[in-house]
Automatic annotation (TrEMBL):
CAAX prenyl protease 2/Lysostaphin resistance protein A-like domain: residues covered: 380-469
Protein name per UniProt: Sporulation killing factor biosynthesis and export
InterPro entries hit by this protein: Rce1/LyrA-like_dom
GO BP, sorted A to Z: CAAX-box protein maturation
Domain of life of the organism encoding this protein: Bacteria
Keyword list, A-Z: Membrane, Transmembrane, Transmembrane helix
Molecular function GO terms recorded: endopeptidase activity
Pfam families referenced in this protein's UniProt entry, alphabetically: Rce1-like
UniProt organism field: Peribacillus simplex
Transmembrane segments: 6-22, 219-241, 247-266, 287-308, 328-350, 434-454, 460-478
Stretches of the chain forming a coiled coil according to its record: none
Length: 495
């Protein structure tokens, strides 16, 4: 395709993508520093522990499974306000860590506590001013305002057990709003609240059908993995039993990009691990050490897969005389332009289908929430590098080359790899889901024929730029708004 025409289509595609970006949640997420201060006060009130000088680790939190299920049941829009109040979306998880102790807490958009786990010895908690003798006393201690979630819960029972020479009393509550039910358990030890746990249920007769669809999707994901694994084995056997030259330099460079992608967010991954599963018997330094070792081992594992598959794919492609890295500048430009065209094409199609009620797409995080959550461009870079390099090497470089060697049919090779590639991806945010898979198959066709007609580097750049823009545009757009002084309290598309 003429580069001028490709450039024109690329510009049009990028403009269409910006115009028809996916819908987003209304952003009522509180600032991270405010969430830390509120959490500090809650913990002091409920446990009599001052965590103001402890190290806080924070993450944006939402219940992805519940949100996707509500979306597939067509209940998400109607129950959105309830999700905010219950802390299912737009909430924070914060873990305060000190030597041999930690406290994890969840704060919703209304500044209420919705989750807590105290990992502190009872003798270090001191005496609490709150007198908890009944289920009502617990609710009074947790209530922030008269319209919050704790003013609406109903007690369903209580019980007691002995542990480490102290009594732990558990109070059970239930919270219901239309088709949603939340079961809550609160643990109290020596007049101190040490745990708040909850489980959300969707009250509908269609849940069985939703669970079956989720299971089917998992099975399809597995079949895609198995198919790619078989293709990898076949490719390696071809490398072993065919008398071809071995090219090492390029596979090593490709592998290094994968390793960089894995290690780029090592610090953030460790912080996430501390928030989700910190063991106070370990020091933070030991957790970081374990995290670094795990990241290195993970990068080695990813690197080995990438090296073997790229080595095999490059050698097969060379035998078949497929374009790889020739004319680098033109391939990079072509890849960028094709990614713009793809973004504009699919965003326009999804916008049209959504507008005409042909598909429902689960909303994304707003630009504001993406920014406040602490998501960084280097995380976008890491995700984009890992996904584009590994997937393009396995499905395009190795998969298409292997199938071409076996069947000598471009269309068949691109079709098989596109279908297998689409099955590896989740379609739970789309209803009906098969439309998402059709879109992925079409994108797989674009990537496959980009490889065959322009070169592997062009396909790799197309995939990388596509993913990077999708992940990064909320941050970039919000920062531009901030500099222009156009930032409002919320940034969303109403629906």
């Amino acid at each position: 395709m003429n580069i001028i025409l490709l450039s024109l289509l690329g510009v049009i595609g990028f403009v269409l993508f910006l115009k028809y970006r996916p819908k987003s949640y209304e952003s009522i997420l509180i600032d991270k520093e405010e969430a830390i201060n509120i959490s500090t006060r809650h913990i002091k009130k409920l446990t009599n522990i001052d965590v103001s000088d402890w190290q806080p680790y924070c993450m944006y939190w939402y219940d992805r499974e519940t949100v996707n299920r509500l979306h597939n049941l067509n209940m998400l829009n109607r129950l959105r306000t309830t999700l905010y109040k219950w802390g299912i979306i737009e909430s924070w998880r914060i873990r305060f860590v000190s030597q041999n102790k930690s406290i994890s807490i969840g704060i919703n958009a209304d500044k209420e506590i919705v989750f807590m786990h105290v990992d502190v010895r009872s003798q270090e908690m001191g005496t609490n001013e709150i007198n908890i003798q009944s289920p009502l006393d617990v609710i009074k201690a947790l209530t922030v305002n008269n319209s919050g979630i704790w003013s609406k819960v109903k007690s369903t029972g209580e019980g007691e057990r002995k542990e480490d020479f102290s009594n732990i009393r558990t109070y059970w509550y239930i919270l219901e709003e239309e088709e949603l039910r939340m079961k809550i358990s609160i643990q109290v030890q020596e007049n101190v609240i040490i745990g708040i746990l909850s489980d959300t249920e969707i009250l509908t007769s269609n849940m069985g059908e939703i669970v079956k669809k989720e299971f089917g999707e998992s099975a399809l994901n597995l079949s895609g993995f198995i198919g790619s694994f078989i293709a990898t084995i076949i490719g390696i056997l071809l490398l072993i039993f065919t008398d071809n030259a071995v090219y090492l330099k390029t596979p090593i460079i490709i592998t290094l990009f994968t390793i960089v992608g894995v290690l780029l967010t090592c610090k953030e991954d460790i912080s996430m691990g501390i928030i989700n599963s910190f063991d106070s018997r370990l020091s933070v330094k030991s957790v970081y050490l374990i995290g670094i070792i795990s990241a290195i081992m993970g990068s080695i594992a990813y690197g080995c897969v990438t090296f073997i598959t790229s080595l095999t794919g490059i050698n097969l492609a060379t035998v078949l005389e497929l374009p790889l890295f020739e004319n680098v500048g033109m391939q990079v430009l072509t890849g960028v332009l094709i990614s713009f065209i793809s973004l504009g094409l699919f965003s326009s199609i999804f916008h049209y289908m959504d507008k005409n009620n042909l598909i429902r797409i689960s909303p994304e995080l707003s630009d504001r929430s993406s920014y406040l959550s602490g998501f960084k461009l280097k995380q976008s870079l890491s995700i984009s590098l890992q996904s584009s390099v590994t997937e393009e090497v396995i499905f395009r470089l190795l998969g298409i080359s292997t199938l071409l060697w076996l069947f000598n049919n471009n269309l068949l090779a691109v079709t098989i790899t596109s279908v297998l590639w689409s099955l590896l991806h989740q379609g739970s945010g789309y209803n009906p889901r098969f439309i998402r898979w059709i879109q992925l198959v079409l994108f797989g066709f674009i990537l496959g024929f980009t490889y065959l007609y322009y070169g592997f580097l062009a396909a790799l750049i197309t995939h990388f730029v596509h993913n990077f823009i999708v992940l990064s545009i909320p941050l970039i757009y919000y920062k531009i708004q901030m500099k222009a002084g156009k930032v409002e309290n919320t940034h969303n598309i109403q629906y």
